Amino acid sequence: MPKNSKGIEIAEINPEKCIGCQICIAECPVGAIELNSDTVAEIDPETCIGCGKCYDVCPVEAISFEKKEKQEKAPTERKEETAESVPGYRGIGVFIELAGGEGSEVAWELIGKARELAEARQTEVIGFVLGTECQEVAKQAITRGCDQVHMIEHPVLGNYFSSSFGEALSWLAEEVSPEVLLMGATHLGRDLAGIVATKLNTGLTADCTGLDIDPHSGLLLMTRPTFGGNIMATIYCEKHRPQMSTVRPKVMRARDRDPERTGSVHGYDWELSDRDLPELVESVSEVSESEIDIAQYPALVVAGKGACDSENLSMLQELAELLGGALACSRPVVELGIMPYERQVGQTGKTVAPKLYIGVGVSGAIQHRVGIQGSEKIVAINSNPEAAIFQVADVGIVGDYSQVVPEFIRQLKSKSSKLKAES
Q1: Domain that holds residue 137
Q2: Is the pTM of this model over 0.85?
Q3: Do residues 44 and 33 make contact, with C-beta atoms less than 8 angstroms apart?
Q4: Which of 92, 203, 226, 258 has CB atoms 3.0–4.6 Å from 114's, for a disulfide?
């Protein structure tokens, strides 16, 4: 193993394996790692202290380091905190948000992830439902992967009020005592999660892109982008329960329904505290066409800074329509005022998971790549062969988009015409 001038054995990075995820940068305690111009991590040998933390967290085994066996800790040293050190809590809880009287898609996605976490903890998945008529949703939650569903049905829960929902979910969580509580990072979920975490006197990690169980401590490892999405931080909650996290829609994958699954459903009599509650005066449900939800489309054509010429946006729109999808964009396009924020893809915009993603002139900054990681197929068109987007693309096309996209459109129209003629 190489050594620096101080005689310290240091880690080495294989540039062929490095994907530029920057997790090692966030973990290094002395700031010895940074990205070079090729978006590959490099270690400053004179700054490195040989702790090996970068080796431990690298997700692609791009770092070489020979860790020495640690000496046994002295009896006087602090005992490692574990999930079992907070007694009385068990199970992976998921708040099942309702959308139009049905379970929301993000809830099913979270239940899918909760099953993985529950298997690692050898425990059960617990669903929490609040509403007026929840029996069918509770049954669906069982088929989606819950072992238990706990619900409160009450007239005041027919519409979302932060005060009533906050009290109801906090009360229910105290009754059931899950060690983990997951919620969708929707408008409702973000508002509700902060209230519940405060009432339960526990921590909350928002907008997570990764969840796992530490095999040694049993703690929930919650990974999220930080510093504007430039680095990834893994956070855990040692001493308070439940360990709470919100996750954006489309980050996790929902499991298929299993009609044969069985589980238990528990209803609760819940009384409101003696306080004045807000009164619903008017409800507006219509959404204008300009406020479309790009996360719901099976295909997205995403315009980047390299393809944000307003004259050519109609061409990209045509491609999106031929694919049965929508036109979206990266953050620089919004900042230039060419497209609205509702169309922005990425960590600071919307996390998406379409069947087909086509990035046109998208450079592929880490914030953007985090937001498209759930896509089934990624096609990248960029004139720069070194663009970071190619690192995650299933198909990469190096070329001028103003020539590539028209060819896409021509071939799609030609194929469509043949299909119509054959039918």
Answers
A1: 86-268
A2: no
A3: yes
A4: 92
